[in-house]
Amino acid sequence: MFKYRLEKVLSLREQELEKIKIEFQEAANQVRQIELKIQQNKSQQTATQNNLVTPEGLTSPKLYINRLNYLKQQLETLEQHLMRAKEILLEVRDRMLEAQQKAEALKRHREKKKAEHDKEELRKEEIELNEIALIMRRVREDQNAEE
Fold this sequence. Notes:
With about 150 residues, the chain is mainly alpha-helical.
């Protein structure tokens, strides 16, 4: 029976990898949400600009300009948040890749050790079978000699 002595370490590395994958998904969702907010902000800016040039918009152009300025400031803030969220996403991705490499290295090590163990077990079994065959041969020779 093969027992890998680093099984607990491998299990911990796999758990760490799963946590980082979840963290990566959350970071990716954060980026998508900010990108969506940026798209919404741009469409609001376009709608506000379109309302400014309509006859109804001419009644209070200052309100529309204030609204546009507010949306532009909000857009700048969102773009800064997006840059930071993308940085975080890249950091988490790097950590995830590192964790994957560590887990894969241990998995390859386990498979190598299992193959070595299986080879050794096969060798031992072969020796046992050879000994059994030798004993049976001696028994037959002894029986033939007695006859």
